[in-house]
Amino acid sequence: MALSVSRRIVRSFGSLSALGRCDSSTVISRSSQASDSIARVSVDYLPHAECFGLPKGGLSSLACRRFSSTILTPDSAENAFPSDLLSSKTVLTPDRTIGLYQDLVIPVTNFHNEDKGLMVLAGDVFDVPIRKDIIHRVVLWQLAKRQQGTHSTRTISEVSGTGRKPWPQKKTGRARHGTLRGPQFRGGAIMHGPKPRSHAFKCNKKVRRLGLKIALSARAAEGKLTVFEDLEVPTHKTKNIVNYVKQMEDSKKLLMVDGGPINEKLKLATQNLHYVNVLPSVGLNVYSILQHDTLVMSRDAVNMIVERMHTPINR
């Protein structure tokens, strides 16, 4: 039925080339003829329309209705369309693309979950492209630099023992030896053993700074970055921090970063919790961020980190 209706409409309008060459009066006359034909078709197929639950004259009104691209909303026009008939579903927006250096707006709160306004995070610090190779280089540099390197073994000149030749060179049938402090004897020296040294290697400042930016951007993209107005706690009781961590979803290890020296109450409240660590902003590093799945920073800490990232590198 729908196919026959569409064919009659096309016949009434004619070909597209003929429609493009005709004048406005011809278009108006043909459009009126098309509407009349649609009305006649709707009357002819009225029993079929009633079978589909359409009221009388409903098909003709649907056919003659002008379609518009305007989206109807409750605030689009007063009393133009019933608001209860409009869809109340939220419009799904596509996910944000990471690494476009766009400034991020994040809400600011505190331990009492109070609204403390909003804060803009610099895009060149908290929205940089994620590069695993840079993270790998910086983490290796950190682990190598913090290695103590105090391992030591004794050479043949450092082992205690006599320097006398154990037995004559010949006529004993035994192997020739000149000392009992050699590496082949029990309690003897260690040849080519480790000595105290530094395992650190050079990593460029630009790479280290980029690694910290990538780590912060990864936590911000995952939604695991929270900004507090400050890290002030009412008391030094550990239960306050425990109750706050329980309220957080999918949080196993928490890293708190403050702008200045750590508050004494906060230090006492977190020292018995193995899953909560506190750092000043000057000590924030890539390895610590990767070890904790949730990052909580104060407003001062964010400002100091951004200022540190924007400081020119001294050569």
Automatic annotation (TrEMBL):
Question: Record's GO cellular component, any one?
Answer: ribonucleoprotein complex
**Keywords linked to the UniProt accession:** Ribonucleoprotein, Ribosomal protein
Kindly list the GO molecular function terms attached to this UniProt entry: structural constituent of ribosome
InterPro entries hit by this protein = Ribosomal_uL4, Ribosomal_uL4-like, Ribosomal_uL4_dom_sf
Superkingdom is: Eukaryota
- Region Disordered: start and end of each range? 152-198
Q: Where is the composition biased (Basic residues)?
A: 167-179
One of the GO biological process terms:
translation
Regarding protein family, the annotation reads: Belongs to the universal ribosomal protein uL4 family.
Q: What is the name of the protein in this document? A: Large ribosomal subunit protein uL4m
Give the species: Corchorus olitorius
